[in-house]
Amino acid sequence: MVTYPTSDAFRRKLLSFSELRLAPLFTAADLKQLTDYMQALVERCQFPPMRGTLVDWSEITIACNLSASLTGKQKRVGQFGFDAIIRWINDGGRSLQSISARADIRSTRKPNSPRSAAQRKSIDEHERAKPGPKPAPIEDSPKPLFAITDDPISFQAAFALQLKRFGETYYQLHRAVVRPGDDFDNKTMLSWLKGTKVPRSLRSFEILGRIEQRYSLPTDYFKKKLPHQSRSALDHDIGEDISPAERRRLAWHLPDNFNKLPHEKRDEILEWVRRVVISGATDYRRFQAAASKQRYAIRFPATAYGGRASTSPFVSHSNLFTDHGDIDDPDLLSGVIDAPPQLTLEMASLITFKTATLTEIGFQRNGVWGEETASQKLEHLGLMFGALAASPKGEVAGRGLALGHLTFGLLVFPSVWDWYLQWRERRRGFFTAWEVDMLSISLALTREETGWLRQHPELADRLVPIDGLIPAEDVALAKRDWHACCDAFHAHARTRIKEIHSEGDARASRSVRT
């Protein structure tokens, strides 16, 4: 007859495993967190999170609140312990737990003592109780464990930092902020931590507000850090008879608490948005209508999602630009013009880098663009290059760069981005989420190790000094130390994002007072 260790005996084996095998690899704090996590799995007879045939270390790292990313050796040795837990559960751990629980109950019964119906019900409920320790009590106002010196820009980093700051896991936070009747899964918070999803629905924004209140954070602290600020919220309750296109236009101008307002107030808001905003009764809507007639983009007709292009270093061919290099006024040709060949190759390389299933050997990336995202980035970057190339004497009032001088290498210079931001502000009168989204793209492109621009220093070979925009010494620095230029621009872009957010907050405050 095969015998299996009881839960107490198996927990002692796990403790020995932690002391002998894990202790040399982990810090004392991480070792305690990981050991407690393993013990809790045994107590609950619960399988660890899996990814294929191995445990999901990303989820375990978050659940245990480990201080650093794990090495290959730590994962390999830790896998032995989780394999033992899986075998123990498969070999009878669940049945042993239930037998042990029933034995404990029987041992407490008095022989031949009559039981009432209430007593029997209490025993049955005890037998059905979930094994393992009870969840920790929820504090209404937890105290921070440390102060923040450098507030992250990204939502994922800020969310993870606040959890660590208050010593909570995503599961504990979910129990604290989600109320009975709320349809909000704790796995959604886990996806926020992993960075696989970001809040977009009104329900998610409501949960973020509760988290901000719980942690005493400023209003919209998390919302301001979300990527793609130009996207509107989802799940507004505006009826089923509205087309998707109109629904997207309306969602831009509806408050986050729209679904909680009385029906009369909702109808009043919808009527005002349709009459004043959509129909063109505001100054900004009239600006949009006029600006849509001014065409200035650079078009990439040979570049599309799913295409193939080498991400190897670019080869400069000066003869490719003899037809374009001397054109100082592209508006005389057409409002929307085709990109020169070398710029097209650079764009194709970027799109391939961000959309390919497998990253080319020798390169690193963080995240993949889908079809819609790739098309949007292609369009937005085309507008930026179009503004740089457009004539300063035309309606667009661009910078007037020769087409042969256009290259992605320009995007590592703060002066180029400052010109573009100020140009957009002059046209519109204020900044919007568009500028923040474009700067977020630039941050991703120049990020250390994974940025596409960062990994292509050969782009500096195509740079030339531009009077009033890029001095010769800056071009020489880029050719000499490309990574230093990327570092300087990355810090500059972070500062600009904060300044645009501050300007938007001040403008909103002025509009409220008036």
How would you characterize this protein structure?
The relative contact order is 0.05. The longest helix is centred in the N-terminal third of the chain and has 37 residues, at 72-108. With 514 residues, this protein is an all-alpha fold. The strands form 2 sheets. It has a two-stranded antiparallel ribbon with strand order 1-2. It has a two-stranded parallel ribbon with strand order 3-4. It starts with 6 loop residues before the first helix and ends with a helix. The protein has helices at residues 7-22, 28-44, 57-64, 72-108, 117-128, 155-165, 170-177, 186-194, 202-214, 244-251, 263-278, 283-291, 341-355, 371-389, 414-428, 433-445, 472-480, 482-513, and strands at 50-51, 54-55, 298-299, 337-338. The chain has 18 helices and 4 strands. The model is unreliable at 94-115, 119-127, 304-313 and 315-334 (pLDDT under 50). Helices cover 52% and strands 2% of the residues. The protein has 3 domains: 7-128, no CATH class; 155-225, 434 Repressor (Amino-terminal Domain); 298-513, no CATH class. α1 packs antiparallel against α2.
